[in-house]
Input
Amino acid sequence: MKKSHLITLVLVILSMLTSCSSGKLQIKDSIMAPENQLPPISGKWIIEESIESPYYRGVSDVKESLIGGEVLFHNSAVVVDRDYVLEPSFKYKNVNISDYLLYKYKISSDYLNLTEEEGEVISVSSNNQFFFEFIKYSEEEMIFFDEDRFYFLKKTVDEISKEEIDRYISVEHSLMRISNIEEVDALRSGVLLGIKSYDYDDINQVDNWTYKTIWIRTNNRNLSSIYEMDDLLVPRKKGFWMVNVERNINDNNINDEIKAVEKRKFPEEYFDDIKLFSFEYGLEMDLASIEPSRIKNILYVGNDYISVEENELFNDKKALKTYPIDYLDNGKAIKISDILGDEGLKTFVEGAQAIMKSDTTMFLDEESFGLFRRNGYWIMKGRINYQIDGEEMYKDFNIKSIPPKELVNYDELIIPWNKIKSKIPEAIDAFTSPNEDIIIVVTRNNLQIYAIENSEISSKELGRVRLNSSDSIIMAEWSLGRYTGLWEDEVIRSQGTKIK
Output
């Protein structure tokens, strides 16, 4: 009886600790669409001063010119000095300012001379592409971070008209044309491709995978650049994140841990100290040391979710899981009904019934699903794990439902798969841009880039990237127009190496 009470007490304490730690930022998210709604920030603001980041000094020589510049907010556009986005969407959350600055920027409120305790963080994006994040600490004051410094804003006008913001953008277009910056009617496309490579771990005699990102940018159906970098660079509404898998080996235990870290503007060595600011980190390490060996194989990475196959080495059970990127630390996978609703759950069960039949040893787990590539599209599959004579087995089944936008932001194939195979018989996968200007065809050994003209694959190959036969693509995120240059800047800042 005493032992039972002790176990109960330990579980209660762990539950309390987890609850306290997960809510430390006191953040409540909301999303505002731009149509027919007032944005959470409005009016005209002036950039009065700036404070340099203590961790990433001297990135830009020209950012001081922002002082005196204006920032405009309207539901049709947001303008920051000479930069702007049209049809913005806003995501905002209430935060404890001190906690948020420490969590995100690793600085104290004192460093920025802020005394306010509570505030709002408002993220601005357009077409799922991040623009800027603003920290509003009073009705008249807020700050934003760019490159290497924090900028302080002061409101000067409560509301502005659409005519005024249109005039700002019109003037900016004129300046761009005069300086030959703007490319008239240019088709600009860029894509971040996440590549997974298989590599057997001979020392520990287990499977192993490495991950990298390929960045491809084109202008007017001509190849502009190709970069390569280690790990996965994932664009999100909150900015860019880095994703990788760390293998922890302790005595005879092997555990893979998926790391998803929001990119800060700091040198890499500062990330090693993240445990100083996170209680969950220490708790996770303690619990991991007693977990059975488990390796993880990433199947898909999107803006908000990661699909994984997890292999428990002690019994060779291979399970499918899908996790929210924001909550990887708590290890809680989502259910199929979380993203597809009751109808999706019904489709999931129907797909499993043909496999299960009357076999009472099989059990269906609503969390057991993942994303896979087939003929140029992402598809969803469920998995049933079961045992035969003590041996772990599994069977996969198709979920007859299109992955929702929450999982896959863009998944269109402009040219039908049979046409692609007819033109390039060795094709095993393909990706086409939302601009409908380029296609990337995947073969066993190459990424082959072609222009699309009149809905057909051009006979001229623009370029290619060498692949290993074991490589597969687990991420494809597109940027268009003026965002392609911004994304390439981020790739370069992330130590990307130009290969073409």
Q: What stands out?
A: The chain has a mean pLDDT of 82. The chain is about 20% helix and 45% strand. The radius of gyration is 25 Å.
